[in-house]
């Protein structure tokens, strides 16, 4: 009993404590909508404060057998790894002997955009009695989500949603809530209802915009790779077959911070995985794990509704900016 | 392993300066010879690997020393990749 004022249902269990009519409430509809994206039932959803919290809890609650985490996962997952699994230069998990362990392998990488074959890995892992956790944040709303995982975690900000973490827990999965204050019942709400409703609305909008513009952004992705290939010594990370809106490249002999500043001067907001842009002076572990150049790094996350003229202008200014920064 | 033809120390320099120093100074040794570079930049290891891959030089080895690392690279090509960059970079 949380004793929150203005609430009738104790503990806020959505699907057991409330009347059947809640299925048509905005919250019930929002849960249904998110669950449909993931191919699960609304009772298999959990909501927590933010994405990193969802990732952390997801892995921490799985059986404490060896936890094998791919080297390009988020830091909160790698922090719980008993072993880190190597990846290819394009960021894909390398072939290895699968055992009855707990695995964590994300679907679309949020830094370099490569896509892992989650369902194929899940089948192999299940054959060996193992469990698969997957970070599904990037790719949701853009591509049909994989369904083979046992437990998924999602950062709603990845699809333009609010600060909200989503846990998708298949009812067959043995998972115990690592926080003793929370009940391990399904459908429990630990966040404000409006955040769930906002997340579902954001996902709906994101999906519709992504669908309308997928080909256009894919063309931009190809054009950007071609532009990079024409400028000497740019190392493009990831995979040409990756998700089109996430592209990362590194410029040899340039400083990441100066590139970010130069693009900002032209009106473009880009991020960088270079050490000079990180608080601990360590370069992005994803760039390191995939053997990419870590200095002069630029990371683009293109909104699917980015106007065509601004994309064209980016391709236009790129060679000039690279040349300018290399020679400052 | 044979003694490096050139030994450079980039301690205190941060990305991309260690790799840039390596790119410049490797031109001072004959093709087939080895240059050793010491760096205390945490980004230097991955960068020296990636730079060698991008430029065609051969990454031979790395070893921990003090609070940094020492890298051995064999010069393979004659191309001057730093051409056009100012001396003070």
From TrEMBL, chain A:
Cofactor(s) the protein needs: pyridoxal 5'-phosphate
Name of this chain's protein: Unannotated protein
Organism, as annotated: freshwater metagenome
Lineage: unclassified sequences, metagenomes, ecological metagenomes
Automatic annotation (TrEMBL), chain B:
Record InterPro entries: TusA-like (IPR001455), TusA-like_sf (IPR036868)
SUPFAM superfamilies: SirA-like
Boundaries of every UPF0033 domain copy: 8-32
Family named by the database record: Belongs to the sulfur carrier protein TusA family.
Name under which the protein is recorded: Unannotated protein
